Amino acid sequence: MFIVSDFDGTLAEFSTDPMNVPINEEAMRALDELSTLPGVRVAILSGRSLEHLTQLVDVRDEVILAGSHGAEALGQPTGPTQEQSSQLATLDAALDGLVHGGAWVEIKPFGRVLHTRKMTSGAEELQKRARAIEFGGRIQEGKAVVEFSVSDATKGEWITANRRPGEHVIFLGDDVTDETGFAVLAEGDTGVKVGPGETLATVRLADVTAVGDYLTSLVQSLRSGRE
Q1: Region 79-108: what's the mean pLDDT?
Q2: Domain range spanning residue 105?
Q3: The pTM is what?
Q4: Residue 110 is part of a domain; what is its CATH number?
Q5: 24, 56, 140, 200 - which has most CB atoms within 10 Å?
Q6: What is the DSSP secondary structure assignment for residue 120, as one 8-state letter?
Q7: Which of 11-15, 21-25, 223-227 has the lowest mean pLDDT?
């Protein structure tokens, strides 16, 4: 079994301060425990940079951490190419003229994220202008963010590349970027959508709290099946 979970909106609540998010400790304890079970692998697959992800989560070494939608993983140093660096410079120049009124830009190795959660007004108009930026990369909207990337990495590609033959995959996520993960799941796998919205997932949980309950129940189920 391969259990893969998104971080923000799945294991942690959203916050206006992305480095001070309320983390669901029950869910984290369950992931730690799951990683110790025979035949079970666990990963946290986030859109965050790997640097920020490792600063926020405190998990066993057995838990795989991957950032930037899978473009970054521990033990696999990577960085933007010269062409990608040029695209990022173009993007930075365009974003400099947009940021105001509580909006801010998160720097990632392979992209930038425009955050509008702190804005009291004008967020929709700012996001519209941001989506019109041309820099040669990919643009995707999320919850109160517009994400720009010079990498083609997706969560779906990471899951496909890292699953092992015969593994049952359980993937949990809450946002649009997680749909690429749900899309690659095979028959017998389980996609778990957290929160509202259209999805390819077959299971839906109400919120982050429900994720903790779900993972704890999974621990109990797997342990009882081994007794």
Answers
A1: 92
A2: 82-149
A3: 0.84
A4: 3.30.70
A5: 24
A6: S
A7: 223-227
